[in-house]
Amino acid sequence: QVQLVESGGGLAQAGGSLRLSCAASGIALSSYTMAWFRQAPGKERQFVAAISRDALTTDHSESVRGRFTISRDNAKNTVYLQMNSLKPQDTAVYSCAAKEPALAVYNYWGQGTQVTVSS
């Protein structure tokens, strides 16, 4: 049974930091492109960041570039999202996702973790 479980969400002040983790079971993350998405109330889910299997390539959305950093540890079967300089508009449910590199869609999704940034 494939399972992705996010953790590390919570309440942070504007300008603060949080580190999200996504732990996988039933799947070897070394074979997958990994990504983080977020969805705020009343808004469409948006892409945050992605990382290649070997971690040599990363992609961060313009809204988080320079503040958030995606990383992975394949030995721990875990992907991370380090979030610095948080803003209230970063408030959302953050989900991790996995896909085979050649595919256009993400096959597996976690349940999400809430991030709330106060001003």
SSE blueprint and pairings:
Blueprint: E1 3-7, E2 10-13, E3 18-25, E4 33-39, E5 46-51, E6 58-60, E7 68-73, E8 78-83, E9 92-99, E10 108-109, E11 113-118
Overview of the molecule:
A hairpin with an 8-residue loop joins strand 9 and strand 10. Strands 2, 4, 5, 6, 9, 10 and 11 form a seven-stranded mixed beta sheet that branches. 30% of the residues are buried. The protein has strands at 3-7, 10-13, 18-25, 33-39, 46-51, 58-60, 68-73, 78-83, 92-99, 108-109, 113-118. With 119 residues, the protein is an all-beta fold. The protein starts with a strand and ends with a strand. It is globular and about 40 Å long. It has no helices and eleven strands.
Descriptive terms for the model:
119 residues, four-stranded antiparallel β-sheet, 0% helix
